[in-house]
Amino acid sequence: MPEVTRDSHAYLREVRQCLDELERQDLPRVVQTLYEAFTRRASAYVMGNGGSASTASHMTTHLQEGWDGQGTGGLRAVCLTDNISRFTAVANDVSYEAVFTAQLKGMLNRGDVVVLISGSGNSPNVVNAARMAKEAGAVVIALTGFGGGKLHGLADCGIMFTSRHYGPVEDVHLTLAHLVPQLLRARIQDEHGTRPPTGG
Q1: Fewest CB within 10 A of the end CB: N or C in the chain?
Q2: Among candidates 67, 103, 104, 69, which has minimal Cα distance to 85?
């Protein structure tokens, strides 16, 4: 078997393993947590590093869309990696470990939701944000791989994959960036009788 074929089979097998694990986890609780934030008009702050930063930005976009794609009924969601000026100022002037806590300090309220995306679950800036969120009375959702790391133990709920390879973990995290907002829109529709947008 050619090396490229063997490698592709191994990669896709690990993606399927993550998807199998997803079906056995408490995805409804993640959606319920975001729905409760929506009903009380709380905010959700989403963050991650590297590939997880792009997933955080992508998920935030869909959480904001609402029923009509224009924000009607959307969640108050903010991605903390999107303000690159603030992000790099804190990294340069304070430390990279503080890039999220410094932003949360001025915005986070009790009852808000903090969504943390991390392949390893051990990135210091994400772990610090989880600890700060808990102290502030916010709800922590963690999307992790590598068995969850430190972050999994700090979360109120979340999704954890056992794969120790970033590619498959980040692929399925991106799936969640689409799936979670879709399920949230469906829940809002069920409760409020408003039709969500269709199409891509």
Answers
A1: C
A2: 103
